[in-house]
Specification:
- This protein is an alpha+beta fold.
- Helix content is about 25%, strand content about 25%.
- The protein contains 5 helices and 13 strands.
- It has helices at about 20-40, 70-90, 120-130, 130-140, 150-155; strands at about 5-15, 50-55, 60-65, 100-110, 115, 145-150, 170-175, 180-185, 220, 225-230, 235, 240, 245.
- Strands 1, 2, 3, 4, 5, 6, 7 and 8 form an 8-stranded mixed β-sheet that branches. A 3-stranded antiparallel β-sheet has the order 9-10-13, with no helix packed on it.
- Helix 1 (about 20-40) packs across helix 2 (about 70-90).
- The longest helix is centred in the N-terminal third of the chain and has 21 residues, at about 20-40.
- The chain is globular, with a radius of gyration of 28 Å.
- The termini are far apart.
- The relative contact order is 0.12.
Length: about 250
């Protein structure tokens, strides 16, 4: 087995592929590979900078890590929906192609049998099969749903480069047999996958707030100290009146 190499991972999968007959499946495969080639060329990624694995109803691409992920995402968000609309307008209902896509990154090794090995690749496949991504595609009128790994989001998407608007991605957590995986879904979330609130309330729930100690003799508690005597507030950094710190057992300070 070759040493693992850092790569960008692109996965594309056809929805409801197994429900089609052999002729329709063959047609869909041709459509998928033609679309993938055109999108990668639009991103400036030629055949010398990528490696493909055939998975029947899906395609897996290992892309040179030096290729622009921004250009790849931009092409996926523009070229894929446009080409699917154009192709599906001319296709029968059973020959329409709808796709789920994942962009991730990580280390993948290739063995002598051209098998791909790597936990980062496994995680990307878990994202492709995630209920959140499947549900998102089912709920949308368009024909494409895209998910990116947390590493791709943090390294690229969150900076909102031209053509890759960060505000259009929503945080999701995917359950897998390898444990929960953080990811980011492009577009609105399906109803069964609510988004965590973006804004944390300023006031913590009552159960999480520290209890306020009872006022001591002659004053009210303030951050562990006690204002005693006649207090007229704080002005210019000066306390007016008697100030007793702690429980008053160490003496008074004026």
């Amino acid at each position: 087995m070759n040493d693992p190499v850092n790569s960008t991972i692109l996965l594309l999968d056809i929805e409801k592929y197994s429900e089609r007959d052999d002729v329709e499946q063959a047609y869909l495969r041709r459509m998928l590979y033609d679309l993938t080639d055109r999108v990668l060329l639009a991103a400036g990624i030629d055949e010398t900078r990528r490696r493909r694995a055939d998975r029947g109803d899906s395609v897996m691409e290992l892309i040179d890590a030096n290729c622009s992920v921004i250009a790849l995402l931009r092409a996926l968000l523009t070229e894929v929906p446009a080409r699917l609309r154009s192709q599906n307008r001319r296709a029968s209902a059973t020959a329409r192609m709808r796709l789920r896509g994942v962009v991730a990154s990580g280390y993948v090794a290739v063995d002598p049998l051209d098998g791909w090995v790597g936990s980062d690749l496994n995680h990307a496949c878990r994202l492709l099969d995630a209920d959140a991504l499947r549900s998102a595609l089912r709920a949308r009128p368009d024909d494409f749903a895209l998910c990116v790994s947390d590493a791709v989001y943090q390294g690229v998407v969150r900076h909102s480069h031209t053509g890759v608007p960060a505000e259009e991605f929503r945080s999701v957590t995917v359950d897998s047999k390898n444990g929960p995986l953080d990811a980011w879904l492009h577009g609105p979330l399906p109803k069964e996958c609510p988004q965590a609130p973006d804004v944390v309330p300023d006031v913590a729930p009552a159960a999480l707030r520290s209890p306020v100690p009872a006022p001591g003799p002659g004053g009210a508690p303030v951050n562990g100290g006690v204002f005693g005597g006649t207090n007229h507030g704080i002005g210019g950094g000066v306390f007016h009146g008697e100030v007793r710190l702690g429980d008053g057992g160490r003496g008074d300070r004026r």
